Amino acid sequence: MIAPPLVPLAEAAAAAASASSVTSPWPFGLLALVAVVSAVMVVARRKTLVCALFLVLHLLAVAGLYALLGAFVLAALQVIIYAGAILVLIVFVVMLLNVRRESEGGRSAATTTIGIGVGALLALALGRAARDLSTQTPDGVSPGFGTVARLGDAIFGAYFFPFELVSLVIVAGMVGAVILAKRKLED
Amino acid sequence: MDAATMLATALKVVILAGAVISLVPLLTWLERRGAGFIQLRLGPNRVGPLGLFQPIADGLKFFFKEDILPPFVHKPTYVMAPIVALAAALTAFAVIPFGSKLHLLGVEVPLRIVDVDVGVLLLLAASGLGVYGIILAGWSSNNKYSQFGGLRSAAQMISYELALGLAVVGVLVFSGTLRPELIVEQQAGRLWNLCYLPVGALALLVAGFAETNRAPFDLPEAESELVGGYHTEYSSMKFSMFFMAEYVNMFTSAALLTTLYLGGYVVPAFVRRPLGLEGNVLALCEVATFAVKVGLLLCFFIWVRWTLPRFRFDQLMRLGWKVLVPLGFLNIVWASFLVVWGVGR
User: Fold this and answer.
1) Which residues of B touch A84 (CB under 8 A)?
2) Size of interface A-B (CB pairs under 8 A)
3) A74 in contact with B at a CB cutoff of 8 Å?
4) ipTM of the complex model
5) pTM of whole model > 0.90?
6) Cα angle B263, B269, B272; round to 5
7) Which of A130, B123, B137, B333 lies 20 to 30 Å from B212, alpha-carbon distance?
8) Continuous H helices in chain A
9) Distance between CA atoms of B307 and B45, rounded to whole angstroms?
């Protein structure tokens, strides 16, 4: 066993927030609403670039949720990496390919039916899962959770090896992408 | 957060944003006079003393110009783009500490707006979002020149954001904190970070030029090739918002370099001790010190813009990826060595 089970950061941050005091439900409600609505718009809009922009909005709302829970590092990294870098690249590709005109075509009845069916199944499954969801938050999270120092200790202490392995996986992915994208390799 | 802190924060936001935005006209005047001086001509010198009222006249002109909404644009994004550009630029500035603290009516007011332990990351995040303003402007204008400007800008800003981030990380490793005010305070007791990490300072300076889309890195709006680049279709206040965003970004770049490498707002000991500066007077002197450093850097920005010709795009990419990124890594390794050796602690 190489990697010890990683506690999802968002979950832990939620615990940290319950340890601290969340006074008003309004900021959470607003951010959650923006996150859900923008997530729906990502699939509902036709223009690819507008979809990508709603994805940016969604990521920003989720970053806001992280910040609300006291996980500022996570929030900042979410904005820098996802909203600031990855989505910019996606938008770049969308503009470069100029997919605007292709996406104008309509959908067939079959795809619509299948889509609705799969969506209903997913909603059912999520609903069942939500019913069984425990509302109890794990306790025992020390104050100061989610700060830079704590995160650094975790990444370069207990989880050092898995963390470095992840970077290796990313490098492998990048090399693979370059190899695939190059039509022919000179030897 | 109590009412006094909230009020103080609100006041700081209004004052700082107001100061930055109203300094933009002054900076445009400085830019045009500086350009005139460098090119052996006068520049604007007719309106008011030394032409100082010229930017006010220009601003009024922007207000009264017709706000054209071309029929072929994608309206929501077209309208949103300048707002995003300016908002991101102003947000990034909120992280910069411009003094230690002021005592007002028994309340201690820290002279910075945002107070989180990830300050520098927040600045990178905000400036990273600024690129959307330019990309959106390029895409929504539905015009090939704008589109090319947007594309170039996206490629350029992604590349140089990486170089900028690496140059910043070196300082973070060296000082062991993400709080800009702590980085500044550390430099008070010893030499500036510039003396320990000269390579990083150079990389940050160059990346700062590129991030502000200024010459020699102004390819997104290269007028000889792209008409006006991403803002070709913009007029009136919408255009002027892009314009302001560029100058605010200049302020931010200069302020970031000042904070991380040039000792920030700290009043040098050889000035502070003989004059016996204390309390609020010291705080105001700190703000003045910060303003002088930023001002000198801005003059340097202007000097460079009117001295160097524009890069070709392949040169730009080569400089970003093959020179600045390795320099950034070198800077981090060097900073790690300094930490291990215990230098500057």
Assistant:
1) 124-125, 128-129, 131, 161
2) 69
3) no
4) 0.80
5) no
6) 110
7) B333
8) 9-19, 26-44, 48-68, 72-77, 87-97, 109-131, 148-153, 160-181
9) 22
